[in-house]
Amino acid sequence: MVTAAADTLEGAVRPAPALSTGTIDIALLGLGRVGSAVARAVLDTPSSGSARLRITGALIRYPERRRDVRLPASCLLTDAAEIFARRPRVVVEVLGGIEPARTLVRQALESGIPVVTANKSLVAAHGDELRRIAARSGAPFLCEATVIAGVPFLGTLSRRPRAAAVTCIRGIVNGTSNYLLTQMTATRTLAAALAEAARLGLSEPDPRNDVLGVDAAEKLSVLLQHLGWGRVAPHALDVRGIDGVQASDIDAARDLGGVIKPVILAERSVDAVTAFVGPAFVPLTDRLASVDGSENALALRNGYGELFYSGPGAGPQATAATVLDDVFEAATADGGRLESRSDAPRLSAIEPGAPVTAWFVRLTAAEKLPPAADIADLLGSFGIWLQRSSSLPATRQDACGFLTLPVERARLDSAIGALTAAARCHASVYRALEG
Ligand code: HSE
């Protein structure tokens, strides 16, 4: 039930037993989908425990907009100065985008006010700067909800440099695109699945950011910073969208023992990084292959094995829960310990290189494909060798799929160009994760 008080709204959440935090006044910067979910979570949670949250103000852009959480008019403010004048103990930034979020977060941190944010665009673009300001002022800056919103792991890695000494990152970090590809079948189009994802509150306000890989690229960029690899702008990564994936590509991948998943990949050597964001062939034997729907997962290889985190990656409720846990941490934490640390040396500049990798290729022809042996011969003349190909049933010679052995993209592109010209066919090409 939503309740309203005169100037502030109160609800209570159950903190970890040892914490005694009294009332934590929070200012919400933004009252959109995530901001409203945070406000609802504050208001709806039954009163228990010693720590109480109180919303002292919510910064909004459009006072006339209808919202699905009811805050008293005195809480809804369009002027950020008024928000800060109410002296919140923690600022929660859920505006999304870069400005005015960056300016307001800087202002809060410079004044020593802890900040919790769920804004991956902001952290991807300015995380380093904001962490520096936080370290100087001693104000915690927490962003657990920016990557796999419902699964707390960034904070743990911050405190554990040996676990965080990661050399390979593989994951599915965009719930919407994973949901779309899981839902896509011959009869269910991307557009229909996208409408459902929006209804479930999974997709971004501009769903192109999900479909075109922008959201996943921002999350990879946040991870690279957080793990201490260094800073790489999302647009500097090799990013591909899932918009070109056909249901028939998914079927063909299954014929070869895999699925198409929207992945992020990054690998580091001593001084270089290879990174990729986009749809890829994932063998069914890989743990990522069974991460379906809006679930997310992250596999981090470190010196002693592979850590595997999985759980809800999107949705207002999961995000709000993580944000509120961050609020408690921020209100009680020592800011210094929140700086990302890893035993791995920080790379001074990251220039994602072109990796040598296996590829999944699906060929379709308007009429008939050449015999499989001819296709293999042509690819072989470019130095490309097949590890597996789908058998071509007699009745269906207009399509085939194959997996190559590792080869660089440029060489594959030349071979595919020659093949599609000679055989008058179309090729869909996906990076393939190693089995
Ligand atoms: N649109 C994002 C996703 C929301 O689908 O993963 C969570 O960051």
Tell me about the biggest sheet?
Answer: 10 strands, mixed
Overall number of strands: 17
- Quick one: overall form? elongated
What is the succession of H and E elements?
EEHEEHEHEHEHEHHHHHEEEEHEHEEEHE
Share of helical residues: 25-40%
Ranges where pLDDT stays below 50 over 5 or more residues in a row are 1-8, 13-20
Topology at a glance:
Elements (H helix, E strand, L loop, with lengths): L8 E4 L10 E7 L3 H12 L7 E8 L16 E2 L2 H6 L4 E4 L7 H10 L4 E3 L2 H18 L3 E2 L11 H6 L8 E5 L2 H9 L6 H10 L8 H4 L2 H13 L20 H9 L2 E11 L4 E11 L11 E8 L2 E8 L3 H17 L23 E10 L6 H10 L4 E4 L9 E6 L2 E2 H15 L1 E8 L3
Parallel strand pairs: 2-3, 2-5, 3-4, 5-6, 6-7, 10-17
Antiparallel strand pairs: 1-3, 8-9, 8-11, 9-10, 11-12, 13-15, 13-16, 13-17, 14-15
The structure holds L-homoserine.
Question: What does this 3D model show about the protein?
Answer:
The chain has 13 helices and 17 strands. The protein has helices at residues 33-44, 80-85, 101-110, 120-137, 154-159, 175-183, 190-199, 208-211, 214-226, 247-255, 316-332, 372-381, 409-423, and strands at 9-12, 23-29, 52-59, 76-77, 90-93, 115-117, 141-142, 168-172, 258-268, 273-283, 295-302, 305-312, 356-365, 386-389, 399-404, 407-408, 425-432. It is 32% helix and 24% strand. It is an alpha/beta fold and 435 residues long. Strand 11 (295-302) and strand 12 form a beta hairpin. The model is unreliable at 1-8 and 13-20 (pLDDT under 50). Helix 1 (33-44) packs across helix 11, helix 3 packs parallel to helix 4 and helix 4 runs parallel beside helix 9. The structure holds L-homoserine (HSE). L-homoserine is lined by residues 149, 174-176, 202-204, 210, 215, 313-314.
